[in-house]
Amino acid sequence: MEASGYRTSLSTDLPEGDPLEAYRAASRPFSVGRTFWIDPGEPGRAAPPAGRLALRVPASRAFGTGGHESTRLALRVLEEEVDADSSVLDAGTGSGILALAAAALGARRAVGFDVDSDAVFVARDNLRRHDFGGRVRLFAGGIEAADGRFSIVVANMLPEELSPILAALAARVVPGGKLVISGIPADQESRMATRARGRRFRLASRLRENSWSCLCLSRASS
Known about the structure:
- The strands form three sheets. A seven-stranded mixed beta sheet has the order 8-7-6-9-10-12-11, with helices on both faces.
- It has one domain: Vaccinia Virus protein VP39 (Rossmann fold), CATH 3.40.50.150.
- The protein starts with a strand and ends with a strand.
- Helix 2 runs parallel beside helix 3.
- The protein contains seven helices and twelve strands.
- By secondary structure, the protein is α/β, with parallel strands linked by helices.
- Helix 4 links the parallel strand 7 and strand 8.
- The longest helix is centred in the middle third of the chain and has 13 residues.
- It is globular.
């Protein structure tokens, strides 16, 4: 279009590509806790150090590459709690990193779910990067679709996401089992702990990193 001697044009050609490609290329693996070695970069670039369990979760649109404190805190709790007898439910699985961690630690059953179907699509890709990924079951949907009860239920969510489903998550924990809630700003820790204790749970342990908290709560045995 021309007007007043000026020519304007409209272009709808936008550059295509993966906006996280550069981030993955620059990312370096890092250790979490005593057990894990997280690689958020391009898959398969390096082997983990001796004695470390590798979790390869390239940066994507799904949350959970271990770069955030809340994810690291949840991983540290899982390495203390998961054993070969564990059954683990990962609520809001995102990249699938916590369900994968449970399988890597030897859990007999690991299930992850997310209401974001795109996140589940990414998580399924991540399962295929691991020899133990076949032991994880994923589904898109809410807590109401999770079958049975579990010895460990873990949720890495902000309080406003967690609060509406806290009762349903607590109901999925077997007597004597653990409820692990991460993604809690430190100034909301006391309120969330009080709500969980009101559902027959007691505080078993607590971890903090910077301004984030993770609570591990134990359900009464009877």
